[in-house]
Design goal:
The protein is α+β, with helices and mostly antiparallel strands. It has helices spanning about 5-10, 25-30, 30-40, 55-60, 110-125, 205-220, 225-240, 255-270, 275-290, 295-310, and strands at about 50, 65-70, 80-85, 85-90, 105-110, 135-140, 140-145, 150-155, 160-165. α6 runs antiparallel to α7 and α8 runs antiparallel to α9 (about 275-290).
């Protein structure tokens, strides 16, 4: 069985009418577009991603909860994996270089958190930590200002392919990453060529910088520029790139400052600066140790936990 035969067998729609040869009366007189739409309504697309070793990809993804549904060793190594509606196919290119990869695919789900939790648990079991640098690596679910404020994260596989998991609000609704109304769901409206930017509602300069940094680093893969923007905003708002000796005195709400500091820790790690990461983490620990209101305490504790998980061991 070849790759093409396998994919065709998987995608075949049940009980469809037999194909009609081109040139027959049905082909020329029927509504071709309408029939094509009817068939397309039951179709699905399968990402076919390159890698150096399909066995490595099978081993990696099964450790994260997917199941191998097809494997071909000759003539062309190929593997297919699934988890519900998440379908990933890989073909082998022995000289493939993850550093040069530009391949990507998207996974649309109603809730990104459970998928991230599953993948993160597998990564921790496999590597003893949550990898945020190298191959593979993963980002956290964060609101994406360039995706109507909906939550998203990326898992970059061992071959350098970006598997982007995004929250899609239910049809006909508008919800942000926390399920609150007010953020329009979906990409740019038809007829426009610029995606709408959905900043954190009521957010100040630090929150706006965090919105921008997340898009730069997690969506576009530029953690250096993201770090520069976020560190600059923190410096202007608090006096230093990582905060102040008395964080609560800066005037920046804890709900904005704590996530920004936690993300700065991660960006410092991702850009190879563990000393700066530890400095930002210390400022966040100072914030968490302050006398905070219950809601702020929860935000600070969550941020501190996230920071600890990515902070390199001295």
């Amino acid at each position: 069985m070849t790759e093409t035969e396998h994919v065709s067998a998987s995608a075949a729609a049940p009980d469809t009418a037999p194909d009609t040869a081109p040139g027959t009366d049905r082909d020329t007189s029927g509504d071709i577009a309408a029939r094509a739409r009817a068939v397309a309504a039951t179709a699905f697309m399968v990402p076919m991603l390159p890698c150096a070793d399909v066995d490595e990809m099978a081993d990696f993804w099964t450790s994260l909860g997917l199941t191998v549904t097809y494997r071909q060793r000759r003539p062309n190594p190929y593997v297919a994996l699934e988890l519900g509606g998440i379908v990933l196919h890989y073909y082998e290119m022995p000289e493939w270089d993850p550093e040069k990869s530009h391949s990507t695919c998207a996974v649309a789900v109603p809730d990104t958190e459970p998928v991230h939790d599953l993948f993160a648990a597998g990564l921790r079991e496999r590597f003893g930590r949550l990898p945020v640098t190298g191959f593979p690596r993963i980002t956290r679910p964060r609101r994406r200002a360039n995706n109507a404020g909906l939550s998203g994260f990326s898992l970059i596989d061992p071959a350098g392919n970006w598997v982007r998991v995004t929250h899609v609000a239910p049809s006909g609704t508008a919800a942000d990453a926390d399920g609150d109304p007010g953020a329009a769901a979906g990409p740019a409206p038809a007829g426009t060529d610029v995606a709408p930017w959905s900043a954190t509602p009521g957010g100040g300069p630090v929150a706006r910088a965090l919105d921008t940094a997340v898009v730069l680093a997690d969506s576009q893969g530029d953690p250096a520029q993201a770090r520069k923007i976020l560190a600059g905003a923190l410096r202007r708002a608090t006096g230093t790139a990582a905060g102040t000796a008395a964080p609560t005195a800066s005037g920046v709400p804890v709900a904005e400052l704590a996530p920004a500091l936690a993300y700065l820790v991660e960006l410092c790690v991702r850009t190879g600066d563990p000393e700066a990461a530890r400095s930002a983490h210390e400022r966040l620990a100072d914030l968490a140790a302050a006398d905070l209101a219950p809601a702020d305490r929860n935000v600070a504790d969550v941020a501190l936990t996230e920071s600890r998980e990515v902070l390199p061991v001295p």
